[in-house]
């Protein structure tokens, strides 16, 4: 860790005596640190607004507070521009393999439903809308403007995005997390927690469900079970097709997010490999969707 973040963290007016500061691994958008003083542990998240990724820290703060009020996420202890301090949860982040376990899906799906239904009851201030089709079109414009190596793919990807948007409606609107990677789900041994609200905003529930499935490589049988758990009823072929369209959109967004990060991010992460992996997964999912 550089001296500058260390000094910034140590200067915060909330520590009880001497502290230890340790970087936390795993983040590919923010820099995260575990801080321990004489009486508690906390997580410090460092990260400014990232306009190219539609990340606004005032929205992340409001969503974090609402998620805590809804009982889903740790408490916000402190915030200032570019910095957020949260209660530390003594828990481990899930892996995709753990997410795929049938017993775990039965725990995760009610958590997602609570996110969708309960957070709007607590959210204060102006709220964001996370519309994946706008996001990918904006990414395409930025990639073209910045002469990305991926420019030859953009026309075809945007044509596919248009087809997916038409197929995914009609749209129910809920409050989405919009980044359901396994690492954003914590298990403390008694309950699950949902963390990291960088992309939070109103959306269709099928985006979160599709993201959970695509990020963690659920099987078709698990996907149907997930949808039945969420909707608490058997699902129709029409809903399955709409869901498949949003799952493809989730994979397309993750692919293009990585393409953008290849240009803009300063974090030590192999974005080129991440782009290639997600592009392959998107093409496979789109092929399945197009043959439905």
UniProtKB/TrEMBL annotation:
Keywords: Kinase, Transferase. GO terms for biological process: phosphatidylethanolamine biosynthetic process. The keyword Iron does not apply. It comes from Gellertiella hungarica. CDD domains: ChoK-like. InterPro entries: Kinase-like_dom_sf. GO terms for cellular component: cytoplasm. The lineage of its organism: Bacteria, Pseudomonadati, Pseudomonadota, Alphaproteobacteria, Hyphomicrobiales. This is Thiamine kinase-like enzyme. One of its GO terms (molecular function) is ethanolamine kinase activity.
């Amino acid at each position: 860790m550089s001296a500058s973040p260390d000094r910034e963290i140590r200067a915060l007016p909330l520590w009880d005596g001497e502290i230890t500061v340790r970087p936390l691994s795993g983040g590919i958008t923010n820099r995260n640190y575990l801080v321990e003083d004489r009486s508690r542990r906390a997580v410090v998240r460092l990260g400014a607004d990232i306009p190219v990724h539609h990340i606004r820290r005032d929205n992340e703060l409001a969503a974090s507070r609402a998620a805590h009020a809804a009982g889903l996420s740790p408490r916000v202890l402190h915030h200032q521009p570019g910095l957020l301090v949260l209660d530390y949860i003594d828990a481990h982040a899930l892996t995709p393999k753990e997410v795929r376990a049938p017993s775990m899906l039965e725990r995760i799906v009610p958590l997602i439903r609570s996110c969708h239904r309960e957070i709007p009851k607590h959210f204060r201030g102006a709220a964001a809308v996370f519309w994946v089709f706008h996001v990918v079109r904006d990414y395409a414009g930025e990639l073209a403007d910045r002469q990305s190596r991926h420019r030859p793919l953009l026309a075809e990807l945007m044509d596919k995005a248009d087809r997916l948007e038409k197929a995914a409606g009609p749209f129910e609107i809920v409050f989405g997390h919009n980044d359901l990677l396994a690492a954003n789900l914590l298990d403390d041994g008694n309950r699950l927690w949902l963390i990291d609200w960088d992309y939070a905003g109103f959306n269709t529930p099928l985006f979160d469900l599709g993201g959970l499935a695509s990020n963690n490589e659920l099987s078709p049988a698990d996907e149907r079970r997930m949808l039945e758990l969420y909707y608490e009823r058997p699902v129709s072929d029409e809903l399955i097709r709409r869901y498949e369209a949003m799952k493809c959109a989730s994979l397309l967004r993750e692919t293009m997010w990585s393409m953008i990060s290849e240009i803009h991010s300063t974090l030590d992460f192999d974005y080129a490999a991440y782009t290639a992996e997600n592009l392959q997964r998107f093409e496979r999912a789109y092929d399945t969707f197009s043959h439905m």
